[in-house]
Every structure is written in C-alpha cells, then in structure tokens.
Amino acid sequence: MSDAPQVLLAHHLKALKLPTFLREHDKLARQCAAEGADHLRYLLRLAELELIEREGRMVERRIREAHFPTVKSLDSFDFLAIPSLNKALVLDLARGDYIGRRENVIALGNSGTGKTHVALGLGLAACQRGMSVGFTTAAALVHELLEARDEKRLLRLQKQLAGYKLLIIDELGFVPLSKSGAELLFEVFSQRYERGSTLVTSNLPFDEWTEILGSERLTGALLDRLTHHVHILEMNGESYRLAQSKRRRRTADAPPHPKPTATQ
Predict the structure, then answer these.
(1) Final residue in a domain of this structure, among 44, 61, 78
(2) Are residues 108 and 175 in the same domain?
(3) CB burial string 192-217: b at 16+ within 10 A, e below
(4) Could you report the per-residue pLDDT of 57-87, keeping only the tens digit for each?
C-alpha cells in the first residue's frame, strides 16, 4: 500500500504527458529538501525542466518536418570566404523578424559560394524560434507539383506549401523548367505573396531568370511578387568548395617535415 501514491503519480504524469516531471520529480525533491527550497521553488524547477525539454522536442520535430538535406548552422559558415556577403544582414535575418513581417530573402551568387549553407542556417534558426519551415530544391518542387497535379492532389500540396512560415526553394536556375512546371512554380509564389516568407537561392542574376522560366511575362510577374518585400544577399566570389579543395590538395602535396635527428 505504501507504493500506491508513487504508482498513481506515475500513472497521472504519463496521462498528462509530463515525462520530465515523471523522470526528475524524485531526484529534484531530494535536492530541494537538501537546499531548504520550499514547495513553490520545487514546482517551478520541475516546470522549467519540462518546458525546456518540451521545446527541445518541438525544435527536433520542426527540423524533421522541414526535410533539410543536412542540418547546418550559421556558426559554421566562413563569412570571411565570401566578402560580398553582408554578415550583419544575415545575422539580423537569423532573428526571424522578417518572417513575422512576411518578407522574402533571395541569395544570389555563382556556384559554390555557400548559398545553400546560409539558407539552411536561416532555416534552422527559424525552427529554433518556433516557426514551421519547408526546404526543397526548385527542380524537386516542380517535379512534385507536376506529379501532384497528375494524381489530383495538387490543391492539398499547394495548401501545405502555403502553410509554411518559411519556405526555402534552393537552386533556382540550375535546371530549365517546362512551361507547365514554371506556371505551377509561379502559383506557389503567388499563393505565398504577403502570406508567408520565401527564401530563394539562385546562381543566376534576375535578368537571366527568363531562361529558366521560359516567359518574360511570367518572370516579370514572379519577380514582382518575390521582390516586393525582399532582402537580397549578394554571394559572388570564388567557389567556397573549390577553395577548400585547393587547400586540401596543397596540404596533401606539401613535403613531409623532416624528422629531427638525435644529437650526440
């Protein structure tokens, strides 16, 4: 009978979905007793532990649902390698205020300059601040839209895409789009206009986007919506990946240091 309160407490905490309370309550009770903390401080500490762990689980869930190809933070980005990039602007964007204002971000620059890394870092920061994020490449998104249209589930997919607080569309410009694909992509931008933030990376300047979208009229309409409230990140420079590769080759080709000889 003496175990009944403990068993009932465990049952109730499981039913209330308070796993941190269940795991920590006994250990924390002993700590508070040793410190002379009253019952209010004990409950406060338990509640804080539960909130911290719950927020951590929510962040992990948002990261999974974003479908990032890999998780990268801005902490690991080498801003010195891309002098054209406005570091202060990137760090300000990481605060996420632009998402609340439904503003867009466009990262422009040649291949290998870290556009995807910055996009992933901003996406991760948004997840950590409690915002829903979706990540895809332009080619994959168009393929998914065309497939959804053929399978008569396009409206459901469009609703999902419109619902993200931040939608990241990577690599716009690497693959020319069909007329139908370009029109469906335009619909995504149009449906998100002033309703959610969109982050686009592209290796092409704006005046060459017609080559991907295939229509000056469509390109003009898309850019009109995308650039109405926008932050532009200029990321031109030497390929970040190429520079890393050169450094690795130089290190590999460097002659080994001679071993010191023993003195007599």
Answers:
(1) 61
(2) yes
(3) bbeebbbbbbbbbeeeebbebbbeee
(4) 899 999 999 999 999 999 999 999 999 999 9
